[in-house]
Amino acid sequence: MSSPSPVQIREANAHLAALHRRVADLEERLEAAENTVREQAESLIRKDDQLRAATQEISEAKDREISYLHDKLCHSEETIQKFQHTVKEKDALLGQLRHRCQLLDNICKSRPLLDKMLSHMAEAERMGPVVDLGETAINSSLTDGESSCSPNRVSNHKDFSLSEDDLDDQELDGVVFGTTV
Description:
The chain is mainly alpha-helical. The protein has helices spanning about 5-125, 150-155, 165. It is rod-shaped and about 190 Å long.
């Protein structure tokens, strides 16, 4: 074989040098790319860790809020039950009070009649006993023993009262009648 000529050797050396530079350049670019990929991977790992931690924190906050809202809901339901029970009690009380109010209205409507009846009874008491019937009724009142309708007892009785209009009535001669409502 013949030996290569010096021009061929120079061309081969130039070609080898160019290949060597190309390989070195590619290795630098490869190393830079690997560094970039490594940095990106590390950055992604850090971001992944941060996102995982944020997700965990959000999940825990969500669980805490759900627990708080559940407790609040239970407390609200208990409060509603208490209020419903109170409303039932108040409704029952209102029913009783309505009935009593109706009774008082009926009493108030009947009061003039009761006042007039007591006035007539007082007049009958003032008339005294019937004289000369030949009986021993002369010293007794209309009833046996002391009468609960006598003017002295009625005027001191605390279960009866008169309105201001009735107090002005001159026919009563100072005797007070009526009902207290």
